[in-house]
């Protein structure tokens, strides 16, 4: 949604018409320079913030009646906090550089929902400003300064409204500067890509030297067309085309990693290894360990039970970090091509690929403190038959 669309939208335009200082940032609507009273009975200026429910016009009514306040806790003219409008006290981290002191929840008596964003923010501004006016008559939020529209420096080509609506921008920001490598775009690797493409990592480097073929279409996210298959694209070309409409930072390397090009991994912050060759796994993972680059290796073993006519097996997620890596080669298979056991039948099913990928990405997000964890597992195995997740090589973590 462009600046002019937001400024002219009937849900927002009354704010501008009445002279409020309005800004849009990171999918949020802000009213700046709102006068309020602090605990020392001094008049100060703060900012009201609410998340936009959509970036597609028309904006319509806000999805809820709550809003955040950036500044100190707003008080009555007496210096007593305005507890009646405060639902939660801060600090509440909205995104980098923006921390709220309070979360407001209040609406006029008899009102079930605000009709516009303007109604909602003017309601809060007027309540707070009225107390400041007792101390400084005539003080106002209506500064009549210019409307500000700021596009965040995001890799996404449209606003990440999922994080905005869930109010987890501050958590999502922890992933922002990452340069991720993904070696192998088979079943599990393609689902790993699908998940990390929806995070704000700076770059995603794809490494695979194979073509995207018909069998790949049945264990990859989305639905390939016959036209896609007829084009005989490489895997990196096919998947780049799928995710480039959503985001920037997809870097394709149409090659397998060998001794001649290991240096392509040297500038990455984290790597997912999703290959089905033991010798290739050893080559890549030994290089990453020697370079001090943390990584996750994934693997799957599904086998056919001819008596029951059904599949059984497991998938694995193994984390190696500079702090904890001695376990790695005891936990993963690196047999030669002739003796490879783990992938001898190469049975893969999309749901197991997806589960394997999801556990790998959750493990990475825990390592980057997106998800909290009490203990860090460096090796996790899920077995189908007993439906159990086995965790091994754990270290204590401070969940705070």
Which descriptors would you attach to this protein?
400 residues; alpha/beta; Rossmann fold; 2 domains; eight-stranded mixed beta sheet; 27% strand
Output the CATH topology of the largest domain.
Rossmann fold
Mean pLDDT: 89
In terms of structural class, how would the helical and strand content be classed?
alpha/beta
First-to-last CA distance = 37 Å
The rough form would be described as elongated
Give the helix/strand layout.
Layout: H1 3-8, H2 13-17, E1 21-25, E2 28-37, E3 43-51, E4 66-70, E5 86-95, E6 98-105, H3 117-135, E7 148-150, H4 161-166, H5 169-172, E8 179-183, H6 187-196, E9 203-207, H7 214-217, H8 226-230, H9 235-243, E10 250-253, E11 270-273, H10 278-291, E12 295-305, E13 310-320, H11 328-331, H12 350-367, E14 375-383, E15 388-396
Parallel strand pairs: 1-7, 8-9, 8-11, 9-10, 11-12
Antiparallel strand pairs: 1-2, 2-3, 3-4, 4-6, 5-6, 12-13, 13-14, 14-15
Helix pairs in contact: 6-12
Can you walk through the features of this model?
The chain is α/β, with parallel strands linked by helices. The protein folds into two domains: 167 residues, no CATH class; 220 residues, Rossmann fold (3-Layer(aba) Sandwich), CATH 3.40.50.720. Helix content is 26%, strand content 27%. The protein is built from twelve helices and 15 strands. The strands form two sheets. It has an eight-stranded mixed β-sheet, sandwiched between helices. It has a seven-stranded mixed β-sheet with strand order 5-6-4-3-2-1-7. β8, α6 and β9 form a beta-alpha-beta unit. α6 packs across α12. The longest helix has 19 residues. It starts with a helix and ends with a strand. 33% of the residues are buried.
């Amino acid at each position: 949604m462009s600046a002019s669309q937001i400024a002219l939208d009937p849900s927002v335009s009354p704010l501008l018409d009445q002279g409020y200082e309005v800004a849009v940032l990171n999918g949020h609507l802000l009213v700046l320079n709102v006068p309020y009273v602090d605990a020392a009975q001094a008049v100060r200026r703060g900012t009201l913030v609410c998340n936009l429910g959509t970036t597609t016009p028309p904006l319509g009514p806000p999805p809820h009646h709550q809003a955040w306040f950036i500044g100190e806790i707003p008080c009555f003219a007496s210096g007593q906090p305005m507890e009646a409008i405060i639902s939660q006290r801060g600090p509440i981290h909205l995104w980098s550089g923006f921390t709220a002191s309070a979360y407001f929840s209040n609406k006029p008596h008899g009102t079930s929902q605000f009709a516009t964003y303007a109604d909602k923010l003017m309601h809060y501004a007027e309540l707070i400003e009225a107390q400041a006016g007792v101390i400084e008559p005539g003080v106002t939020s209506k500064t009549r300064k210019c409307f500000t529209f700021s596009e965040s420096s995001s890799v996404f080509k449209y606003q990440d409204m999922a994080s905005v609506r869930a109010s987890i921008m501050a958590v999502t920001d922890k992933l922002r500067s990452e340069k991720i490598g993904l070696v192998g775009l088979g079943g599990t690797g393609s689902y790993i890509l699908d998940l990390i493409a929806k995070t704000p990592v700076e770059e995603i480097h794809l490494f695979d030297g194979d073509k995207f073929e018909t069998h790949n279409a049945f264990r990859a996210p989305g639905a390939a067309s016959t036209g896609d298959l007829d084009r005989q694209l490489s895997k990196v070309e096919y998947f780049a085309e799928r995710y480039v409409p959503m985001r920037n930072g997809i870097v394709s390397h149409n090659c397998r990693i060998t001794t001649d090009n290991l240096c392509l991994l040297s500038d990455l912050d984290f790597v997912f290894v999703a290959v089905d060759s033991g010798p290739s796994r050893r080559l890549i993972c030994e290089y990453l360990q020697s370079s001090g680059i943390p990584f996750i290796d994934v693997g799957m073993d599904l086998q056919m039970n001819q008596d029951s006519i059904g599949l059984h097996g497991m998938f694995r997620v193994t984390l190696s970090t500079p702090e904890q890596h001695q376990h790695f080669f005891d936990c993963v298979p690196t047999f030669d091509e002739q003796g490879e056991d783990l992938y001898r039948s190469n049975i893969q099913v999309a749901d197991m690929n997806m589960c394997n990928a999801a556990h790998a990405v959750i493990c990475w997000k825990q390592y980057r403190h997106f998800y909290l964890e009490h203990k860090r597992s460096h090796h996790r195995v899920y077995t189908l038959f007993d439906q159990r997740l086995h965790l091994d090589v754990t270290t204590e973590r401070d969940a705070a």
